[in-house]
Queue: 2 jobs
Job 1
Amino acid sequence: MNAAAIIVRTELLRMARGRWLLPLWLAFLALCGYAAWEGAAWSTQRGAALAAIQDEEREVHQMRRSQIVGELTPENKSRYGGAIYATAMSFRATLPQGELPVLTAGQAEGYPMAAKIFPFVASNTIFDEYMAGMENPAVLAAGRIDLAFVLVWLLPLLILAGSFDLWSFERERGMEPWLLAQPVSPLRYLLGKAAARALLLVAPAVLVLVAVLWLTAAPGAATLLQAAFLSALYGLFWLGFAALVNLFARNATQAALGCVAGWLALVVLVPALALGVADLVAPAPNPAERTNALRAMAMQARAETRQQADAASRPEGRAAPNIPDNLRKRAVEVERGEQLIRAAVQPYRAQDERRLRWLDLLRAGSPAIAFQDALERLAGTDAARARRFQDQAHAFLLDVRRLTQRYLEQDRLLTAADYDHGMPRFVHREAPSSERLGALAADAGVIVLFLLALLAVGARRLRRQATFIE
Amino acid sequence: MDARASTSVLRQVVRQQWLILLRERRLRILGALVLAMTVIALVAAAIDARRVRDARAHDARIEAGVWEAQGAANPHGAAHFGRYVYKPLQALSMLDPGLQAHLGGTLKLEGHVQNTSRFKSTDGGAALSRFGGFSPAFALQVLVPLLIVFAAFGAFSGERARNLMWQEIGAGATPWLLLAGRFLVFAGALLGVLVLAGTLAALLGISAWSAQYFGALALMLCAYALYWLTVLGIVLAITAMTMSARSALLAGLGFWVVSAVLAPMLAPMLAERRHPTPTATDFHARVVDEIMKGPDGHNPRDARFAAFQEATLKQYKVSRIEDLPINYSGLLFEYGEKSTADIYNRHFERLYADYEAQAAYSLMASVVSPLMALRPLSSALAQSDMPAHRHFLAQAEAYRYDLVQLLNRDIKFNRKPGMREYAADVATVTRGVRFEPRPFTLAEVLPRTAAPFGWLLAWLAGAVALMRLAAWRLEGRA
């Protein structure tokens, strides 16, 4: 058996005999189980809410169809405008859940999960009904214990708790000179000890995660592998961090302090600081100001179209149309309103995009942020997906408006056949897999870069120590 | 040992520990770091509060302009167009933003509907937003206890500290006096930090100075003092009970993780499980369902208005709607608004009752963490909690109702029979109602702080008892 294998074996035995390993594993398992249970409950509740929204659309269509079939007569037509005029078509666009919603709620609660679409609704208000959740703000403020929280925040603590005395233990017991006198390099010692901890701390944690995800969400193999790979990488980063701290610490207490300080810095302080930087450099647009601007635009559109109302009205003597003229006037008003909205929203949208670019960039500030980002992408609760949905819902509204315009131009009423199979349906299109993989690779890249930085500092320290020993 | 001798020994222990504290480089760095972070957080919060206050004042001015610019419009259309109101920021929320980021500071008021507040600062974030910002409250509630753990874990444990302790005991000090001495020294340093933070917060909130402000600030600082002393007492007891510094550090960190990280997250989630909150979709579906069962205020021919119509005709002693001296549609709008407002009020009452039950459940988690008592207490005094928000919403709803009913009454009294389209100057019609929300007075907040204060006092008593126990065990060993 070579020296490396002996070191790993000895270290494994020592860890296995330690009384702390089993409680750590059990605590982590319990936390993962609880987080997955919470995540599954959240995902079920959200799924039910999405289904209810889609049901709402179906019920409206069914009700209107049955009105056309069973109640509509040429005499009572005016009472069923909602069923027969294309201008009253009612749709719901919903953002389906991703592949692993149990992993994290991510940004799901900060973006709308659905849109209510009518041809004449102002495009800036289609998400309003689904923006305001009823969740207790105290729960949101406390933060959810989901699997991402356990992995991003607590997995490092598990690894640090099991590795904080990786080398300082030997130093404290006076074994360091004896060990360094052996024909084994310090790097090999360190790698052997780290490998043993990777096997008994990182690997079981990854296995627990895979098992929990497989049991609660049954995702595809690729997604599961990606989650496992990223978690292992993140775990190895913290193991590397503990090893680095041990190269500097004089005793186990100092090493523990260094590890906790590092955790605090990378998981709590750097993200808070990064958020502060984002607020300073690219502040979020003021939504209240935007709303006021849009309301002013809506009034302008109304005033303009009222002035042009006479010009837009139909010449007298022409046959009464199926669709009343005031709906055509309204269509003109909506069209003008949309132009004004687009112009008014542009600067706010640009500001929003700039902020998101900065937030995206700042994930490189800490492996914890990059890992959280990756988990949100895997869960399908990331900001990019939510924004993609918003763009698609907006495009769908414009499609519906174009369709309505055709009905108005042809003076055509909706029929039962339209309700049967002629209505457009919103289908969310996911981003191309290359885009998703690219973003995940960028997140993994950030963690790898931090790991390499640790290795570089560690190698430098070891070289210095070697010179000192020689 | 008599009282005078005890005092003398205690004074010596305090002096010696104070010197150790001053000489310890690690503690100086840690203290300076936490103090610097608290100061930065306070200054950043003050700048942010000013920005938000200015923005809301500006938004309110623009909104009023938009409302007035409507000119002559259909009053019911104006009720649908609605108004926006902005929640005033309370001065102490700079110190403890509480739930503010998740409450939203803007509310749309419109006819038929009661909206929830919108534009939360947490909306539209990215992965980074999940970590949350850095507030003075975070520094005082989470980081300072961590500093206490780091600072005090070696007070008795570890070879050097143990040797010093045995020497002190040999010189005539009792373990309890040693514990009390160390407690007093650390407590003095902590109270110094607290006074500095409080003074800075008061200076940054100079524009809000009043007796109420200082009363709330003083109570808040008292609560933080109780909390920190509790943590200090527990950490000192741990260090006195454990031989090695490493065990003391791990136990102290374990206490911090459970009480400052896990319990504050777990308790609200468990409370939500115990008293479930409906989803927004369910809530709106229930409200709309109940509203739809009632008559439609937009449709005077709705058969469900028959009884109301009959009563109205009887009241005005006429036999036909056309003969009424008022506009019947306006009357129906008025009646419909009252019905929907009642329905909304009932459902929101139920929702807020759930929130209250959850808050009471979370407060029970004070059994495992003193932070669970401090958080509601601190945010109640800062008026950044749910009851303060609800207080604002109640005032906004009263204003909404008055505003909409004024518009409805304008139709009722001024729209004459035969008028195909009716328009009135909505700004003139609604000039009589103004929205001037007032925050809770300190006297109104105080009853809510009694239970959390009780918990904090109980925790401090528990910490002192634990210190007594640790001292008793040391005496046994001595």
Job 2
Amino acid sequence: MDYFPLLPEIMLIAMSLVFFAATLAKPGQALLERAAFVLALCTLAATWATYDQSGLFFYKAYRIDAFSQTFKILIALGLVLILWMGAGLRGINSWFRPEYYMFLALSCLGLFLMTSAVELLTIVISIEISSYALFVLIPLRRQPFQRDPLEASIKYFFLGAAATGITLYGMSYLFGLAHSTYLEDISVVLPGFLATQPLAVIGIVMLLCGLFYKLALFPLHFWMPDVFVGAAHETTCFVATLPKIAAMALIVRIVAMAGPGSHQIELILMIMAVLSMFVGNLSALGQQDIKRLLAYSSIAHAGYMMVGIVSMNQLGIASAVYYIYGYLLMNIACFAVIYNLAPQGENITVDGLRGLYRRSPLLAAVLAAGAIGLSGIPPTIGFTGKFMIFAAAFQKSFYWLVGLAVLNVCISAFYYLRLVRAAYSSVEEPGERISLTIPAAVLGVMIMAGIVLAGVFPQNFFRLTLKAVMSVL
Amino acid sequence: MDILSNIPPHLFRMIIAVAVVLGFVFANATVMGYLERKLAGRFQRRLGPMEVGWHGILQMPVDGIKLIAKQLIVPDNVAGILFYVAPLIAMSPVALPFLVIPFAPGLQVIDLDVGAIFVLTMISFNTVAVFLAGWSSNNNYAMIGAMRAVAQNIAYEIPILLSVLAIGLMTNTFSMKGIIEAQKSIWFIIVQPAAFIMMFICSIAETNRAPFDLPEAESELTAGFHTEYSGIAFSLFMIAEYTYMFVNCCLVATLFLGGWKGIPLPFGDYSSCIWFFAKVYFLMFVIVWCRWTFPRVRFDQLMNFAWKYLIPFSLVNLLITAILVKLL
Amino acid sequence: MHFYQIIAEIIFWLLVLITIGGGFLAIGARMLIHSLMGLSITFLGVAGLYIYLGSFFISLLQVLIYGGAICIVLVFGIMVGYTPRQIVETRIRGENLLLAVPTCGLAVALLYFAIRRTGWVPAAQRLADYSIERVGHTLLYDFCLGFELISLLLLVGMIGAIIVVNSQEEESGGQ
């Protein structure tokens, strides 16, 4: 068997092993940081190198194709950017930095496995690997914030356990109907079952619950604000973005397996998408803490992505993938600002942003780019992504869904623009200037450029995602 | 008569078998109780029980009657039903391992393909009983004893399983009969001496016997987890302990000492049965011998011994076995 | 033959009763320790049901691992935390009960009707193929990826538990 296509996974395992050794030696922060960054870059390179590979591994339980590799590129890119953004790990308990990197790598490994797993048990276990690593990452915040993170972690853990339980229960129904745990076998019989057996619908929806939990979609979203507020900024940025990418990959795989013909599943997903948008956006309106605000916005964004998936056509799913790429960039932009504003790793309120453009024009610009992108105002990637998602839904003539989604975009503009207004409002005492390190400044400029350029010229990226989607639909 | 003819004969056999097994459980406890006291006496250069019957041979039946006749004292503030249930949980699963123990080629109830694991599973129930007894007694000594027992049993169950696994790798089966058949040419004690030693040590620890009897260390904890139990409840714990000892020894004899195999004796079919019991009681004798010879270990020594020596060594042993099985 | 079938049927329903009863005890008991006993009873009941599914090996492992080890570890946690006299009352009451019972009832009813309406296709009959060898083949060939990943999962769990506990100790030591 040719193991080259598994190179990204092997890289991540190597990374976690390196940091496992580092937990014993406890080297200095600079060395650790460089090692983490280099290894993450290597992983990204490995995902690029294996982009054209395809094949089934481990007795058909593991599938490498353009779809999975596209998502792996996104996840690896996210890991690199988060490590770059969180340089110095200012919010993390200094005792546990090697462990922190190790668990980041392991969580990413779990996410990689999620994107490629095509067998139900493997799917559950890979979801669990990525979640367990996060349960550990969340409490590793610095000293003065020790209690909140633990509470957040425990909430995350309990909901995760419940979600996994529901997922397994749903899987048991699918297994009972299809007599197989391989998605390939199930997809042969499932469209027929979906038309005749109500239990198949219930089973699929329950199976998706574990993924909705990772995506923070409406009924399983309530861990998100607490985790965002409780965890350190670096961790939060990770939790907010990467698990969603992997969860989306799996949701697309499973929905594609169910076949585009099932109206019940379509309806259920639509209702969840709409509720998730409303709950997220309306709750975000009154928030003061920026991270809490971003948490609710993140719930709303899960809803937008679901709109793309519900369309179940190539355009819809491809634009959902495109959108999640944009979401990754925009969130990293927001978190980069928060991270650099809080030298001690403390949480920031909206009022704390006042006069930001005087303290650091670059950060204010990055925040503006991120917030404008999230609210979906042209010429950002947020606008293009939303536009394409809604266009796809329009094609399938889900008019009311598009109408509600546009209404939500309007609601969300209020609080995103509140952030921008706060950052650009003038105050007498703006506070001391923030001196950015050169890498942080470079990152800020790059992300800004990425948000705008990918929004204006979506063709290239869109072609990639379309190719990925074609391999599953 | 009609009703009786409807009931199949198997059922009668089952009932008789249960009765025989339970009878054996009690008889074994009596014999072992006597042997232990007698041997303890000898090891300490005294006579042991001498008064009741010839050389005290009736001591245990008399003691048993006394214990049954005694009042069951229940202290205040025990945790209700659990206090009463604990000795029953200790006692009830002891008969089940007898299902798979091969006393002789023709004397085995069922030959499960997972026989050895079945025995270990049934033995693991004891932990629950010990813990419940200690916890529900509302007594600090009992509580500490129970905590020790739980920690100890969990730790020592792992090397046992790993040793059994090493045997399973060689025989390709966990069936008790199959394991004995696999020892046709050579006993596994010679092939797997490390596994034998580890398993034997762990069985002593699993049954909470000295030198690992910390859960009931009388010099520190009065009587450990069964401090508050009296009368028949206490004797149920003792009977269970002796039965678990017997079962463990059966397992060791089957796995390592060739079970019923031995030099042919002039008793026909009974000779293999005699060999089996001889081996088992020899092992039990060694356990009693250990008890009265070695001083009790400290708790941290006990835990270190399990986690730092027995488990790594049994893993290494398993690995070597796997490699050798693959190569040879 | 009929006689055995009746006995088997009776024992089956007894096991179902044990499983469900244990579950109710686990949820409804006033003392934490009784909940735990309920849980272990459920585990035993499930182990019995595995025998009816024809896998004696899985059933034994269920008893050994869940009944014998996991419950004991949970018990250990409770034992360190409480003594019989100071039990926290854990009871679902008031508005929670009003919400919980109808919700669960609705879910059960929904599932029940869905299950009843489903045309189940029985699996192909396997004759005496429940042996330990078969389990080994399944784990190490068909599901080898999952099997190996579980060890990774356990590793993450173990190291993670140690780190989380230590991160709390660090705090109390630091202040």
